[in-house]
């Protein structure tokens, strides 16, 4: 393999050396990155299932894989030349799964003005006005009781259950639900060479006890011994977590496996393609979740495609129709905006056209699965793939994306929406991903004070000789979008969603633009909750709301999500209902008193309706709650 690396150049050479130097499970990540980034050189690497598995089980530097010889055929009509697969290439379905569509859009606009006042409740004459009517008596989709959820890799899931600071993490997760759903899986489930150890299970047990959490656990599908490891994970979860596991996901993003989509045949030989994959999925599923009797429970989910935007629904149908009567309790897919995360601008990421594209693709899956009376869970999602983009996903841009996406996909019928936090963070402080809602930071104890890893480095203190660091929750900008949704859907924190979507209609958008969004929910107690989200970074907007039932038009309350000094690019000093996580320390507790403002209704005799007018500055959001009069 070293000889091949020497032939390559640029990023291909770097990827090759990264693979050669990778040890154990890191070989999976290195191979996947190589295949995705430089497929022409990867095709000549000789990395196949058997040698990749051997490399993943070895702690030695180097590789058991043997590159293809010079001139050897690497693809149909193509041959290896100087380490690259060259010649006329035949397009394949697999290629398209790795491409990200470049969306059009304007350049990023000027920063939003900072004349945002928390007490502003009257419309501003100089601002454009949009008019939206709300049909309070209509009924559309019911919001699932626990829709907003999170997703995490196995690697550092134990950090949340560290007994030294589990109380702080409980403060975070319990904001979302009295019984939050935590998905554990991702790439870490398919690349694992051994099941999680007892320490991991004990940490999950403690987290469950402190939060009343329910879990979705990933089972490996790529390894040849997937069945054995799957059974071990199920057994361990029952031992430590009891009945708190609601479903097990079989496999993760199989189209992005280093070996490509495929599976093992009856002789244990790897075969590529959707047919081989579907058969292998069924074989493993029937062994870990037998259905010998009608009363046998169904507890599996799949197939976990890497992106709803890229795979044909016929692929899901292959898995669905084979397993719906035997082992499938639900289906699951992933969603990431279909755009290049290296070049995307804020306007492109928050554009309505980009969201509409994803919703149209998701709708195809929803219609297919609804026919079979199964749900579709978006078990992994976030503002951008690959962990997100610095100075975008980790700002209020990411927070507004989260808030709007939650409404959009709940309205479309998804069973759950799991925002992916990856590994959360690392003691060195280097591996937290930008789109994480609450990052895992760490502090070390040294001489009766607390220090981060890099601070110890500056003091030339060897962190490895100290007590292991304490993981603590560091709230990032996207989290405020989570909280905005929670109050809109449930009315308060630590509560189940209690609302149904009602219909809205844009009567006149004025000059407010497409990025001014309105979502309306009717709560079980009769409250009408109307979410107003201004995703534009420059255009302020007055929202005129016409409501068809005058019983809602006495008084209402307004809560505001406001940016910090950097406007839509704010990472800190963001407030929701007047509260913030600034100065929260290691506690995970939101700070300050709740600010909710009362506003008076207005009458619109020309249209025979009443309602409210609300100013919504650029880069902000507001939640109007109108109570229904009983007399």
Automatic annotation (TrEMBL):
It comes from the Eukaryota. InterPro entries: GH, GH79_Enzymes, Glyco_hydro_b. Residues 88-110 are annotated as: Disordered. PANTHER family: BETA-GLUCURONIDASE, BETA-GLUCURONIDASE C-TERMINAL DOMAIN-CONTAINING PROTEIN. This is Beta-glucuronidase C-terminal domain-containing protein. It comes from Tetradesmus obliquus.
């Amino acid at each position: 393999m070293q000889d091949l690396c020497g032939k390559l150049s640029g990023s291909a050479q770097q990827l090759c050396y990264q693979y050669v130097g990778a040890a154990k499970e890191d070989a999976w990540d290195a191979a996947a990155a190589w295949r995705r980034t430089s497929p022409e050189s990867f095709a000549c690497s000789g990395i196949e299932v058997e040698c990749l598995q051997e490399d993943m089980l070895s702690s030695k530097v180097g590789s058991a894989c043997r590159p293809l010889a010079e001139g050897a055929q690497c693809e149909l009509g193509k041959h290896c030349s100087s380490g690259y697969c060259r010649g006329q290439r035949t397009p394949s379905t697999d290629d398209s799964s790795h491409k990200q569509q470049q969306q059009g859009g304007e350049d990023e606009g000027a920063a939003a003005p900072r004349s945002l006042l928390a007490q502003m409740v009257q419309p501003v004459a100089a601002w454009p006005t949009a008019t939206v009517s709300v049909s309070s008596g209509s009924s559309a989709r019911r919001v699932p009781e626990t829709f907003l959820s999170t997703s995490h890799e196995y690697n550092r899931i134990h950090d949340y259950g560290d007994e030294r600071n589990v109380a702080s993490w409980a403060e975070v997760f319990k904001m979302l639900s009295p019984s939050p759903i935590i998905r554990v899986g991702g790439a870490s489930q398919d690349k694992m060479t051994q099941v999680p150890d007892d320490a991991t299970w004990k940490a999950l047990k403690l987290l469950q006890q402190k939060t009343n959490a329910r879990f979705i656990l990933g089972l490996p599908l790529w390894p040849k011994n997937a069945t054995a490891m799957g059974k071990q994970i199920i057994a361990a979860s029952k031992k430590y977590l009891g009945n708190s596991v609601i479903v097990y996901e079989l496999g993760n993003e199989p189209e992005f496996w280093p070996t490509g989509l495929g599976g093992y045949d009856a002789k244990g030989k790897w075969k590529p393609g959707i047919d081989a994959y579907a058969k292998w999925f069924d074989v493993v599923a029937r062994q870990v979740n037998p259905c010998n009797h009608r009363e046998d429970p169904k507890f599996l989910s799949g197939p976990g495609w890497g992106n709803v935007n890229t795979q044909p629904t016929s692929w899901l149908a292959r898995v669905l129709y084979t397993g719906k009567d035997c082992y499938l309790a639900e289906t699951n897919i992933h969603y990431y905006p279909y755009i290049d995360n290296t070049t995307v601008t804020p306007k492109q990421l928050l554009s309505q056209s980009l969201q509409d594209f994803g919703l149209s693709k998701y709708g195809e899956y929803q219609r297919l699965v609804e026919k079979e009376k199964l749900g579709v869970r978006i078990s992994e999602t976030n503002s951008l793939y690959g962990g997100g983009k610095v100075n975008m996903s980790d700002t209020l841009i990411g927070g507004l994306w989260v808030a709007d996406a939650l409404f959009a996909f709940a309205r479309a019928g998804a069973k759950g929406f799991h925002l992916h936090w990856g590994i959360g963070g690392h003691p060195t402080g280097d591996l937290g991903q930008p789109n994480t809602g609450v990052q895992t930071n760490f502090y070390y104890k040294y001489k009766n004070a607390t220090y981060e890893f890099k601070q110890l480095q500056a003091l030339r203190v060897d962190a490895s000789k100290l007590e292991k660091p304490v993981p603590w929750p560091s709230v990032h900008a996207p989290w405020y979008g989570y909280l905005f949704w929670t109050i809109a859907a449930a009315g308060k924190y630590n509560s189940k969603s209690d609302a149904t979507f009602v219909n809205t209609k844009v009567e006149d958008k004025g000059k407010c633009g497409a990025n001014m969004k309105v979502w309306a929910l009717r709560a079980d107690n009769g409250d009408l909750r109307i979410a107003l989200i201004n995703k534009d970074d420059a255009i302020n907007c007055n929202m005129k709301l016409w409501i068809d039932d005058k019983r809602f038009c006495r008084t209402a309350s307004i809560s505001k999500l406001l940016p910090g000094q950097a406007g839509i690019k704010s990472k800190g000093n963001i407030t929701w209902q007047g509260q913030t996580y600034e100065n929260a320390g290691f506690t995970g507790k939101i700070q300050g008193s709740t600010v909710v403002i009362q506003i008076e209704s207005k009458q619109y005799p020309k249209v025979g309706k009443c309602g409210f007018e609300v100013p919504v500055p650029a880069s902000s959001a507001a939640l109007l709650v109108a109570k229904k009069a009983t007399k």
